[in-house]
Amino acid sequence: MKIQIINGPNLNLLGVREKSIYGNTSFESYLEELRKRYANITINYYQSNVEGEIINKLHEIGFEYDGIVINAGAYTHTSIAIADAIAAINTPVIEVHISNVHKREEFRHTSMLAASCRGVIAGFGMDSYRLAVEYLIAG
């Protein structure tokens, strides 16, 4: 089984930025734990601050992977293009958020991606990624 995690803008700063919202752990540290926990699964990781690069990655893997976990960051609330890319591929996509976006600013309450995704997981910190992986494993 192959799962791709895609993180969008500013998520390369996890562990450094807004620790009260996103915590102290870098994504790379968390990814290492996730890969150890699911050693029998290939978990690839991609991060970009550029909308088009995220779309290209979805197109590249969207017909050959078993699942995609995406945290599109702020693009979640603005990108019809990423939503269209998700709708165009066969691989199931789970949208995740580290914070509970519904407890934050009003503009974060709307996801342009959710309707194109299999489901949405939000508010469980980094564990949101694990929950998405568990869903994909269960099929």
From TrEMBL:
<dbReference type="GO" id="GO:0008652">
    <property type="term" value="P:amino acid biosynthetic process"/>
</dbReference>
<comment type="similarity">
    <text>Belongs to the type-II 3-dehydroquinase family.</text>
</comment>
<dbReference type="GO" id="GO:0003855">
    <property type="term" value="F:3-dehydroquinate dehydratase activity"/>
</dbReference>
<feature type="binding site">
    <location>
        <position position="108"/>
    </location>
    <ligand>
        <name>substrate</name>
    </ligand>
</feature>
<feature type="active site" description="Proton acceptor">
    <location>
        <position position="22"/>
    </location>
</feature>
<dbReference type="GO" id="GO:0019631">
    <property type="term" value="P:quinate catabolic process"/>
</dbReference>
<feature type="active site" description="Proton donor">
    <location>
        <position position="97"/>
    </location>
</feature>
<comment type="function">
    <text>Catalyzes a trans-dehydration via an enolate intermediate.</text>
</comment>
<dbReference type="InterPro" id="IPR018509">
    <property type="entry name" value="DHquinase_II_CS"/>
</dbReference>
<dbReference type="InterPro" id="IPR001874">
    <property type="entry name" value="DHquinase_II"/>
</dbReference>
<dbReference type="InterPro" id="IPR036441">
    <property type="entry name" value="DHquinase_II_sf"/>
</dbReference>
<keyword id="KW-0057">Aromatic amino acid biosynthesis</keyword>
<feature type="binding site">
    <location>
        <begin position="98"/>
        <end position="99"/>
    </location>
    <ligand>
        <name>substrate</name>
    </ligand>
</feature>
<comment type="pathway">
    <text>Metabolic intermediate biosynthesis; chorismate biosynthesis; chorismate from D-erythrose 4-phosphate and phosphoenolpyruvate: step 3/7.</text>
</comment>
<comment type="subunit">
    <text>Homododecamer.</text>
</comment>
<feature type="site" description="Transition state stabilizer">
    <location>
        <position position="17"/>
    </location>
</feature>
<dbReference type="Pfam" id="PF01220">
    <property type="entry name" value="DHquinase_II"/>
</dbReference>
<feature type="binding site">
    <location>
        <position position="77"/>
    </location>
    <ligand>
        <name>substrate</name>
    </ligand>
</feature>
<feature type="binding site">
    <location>
        <position position="84"/>
    </location>
    <ligand>
        <name>substrate</name>
    </ligand>
</feature>
<feature type="binding site">
    <location>
        <position position="71"/>
    </location>
    <ligand>
        <name>substrate</name>
    </ligand>
</feature>
<dbReference type="GO" id="GO:0009423">
    <property type="term" value="P:chorismate biosynthetic process"/>
</dbReference>
<keyword id="KW-0456">Lyase</keyword>
<keyword id="KW-0028">Amino-acid biosynthesis</keyword>
<protein>
    <recommendedName>
        <fullName>3-dehydroquinate dehydratase</fullName>
        <ecNumber>4.2.1.10</ecNumber>
    </recommendedName>
</protein>
<dbReference type="GO" id="GO:0009073">
    <property type="term" value="P:aromatic amino acid family biosynthetic process"/>
</dbReference>
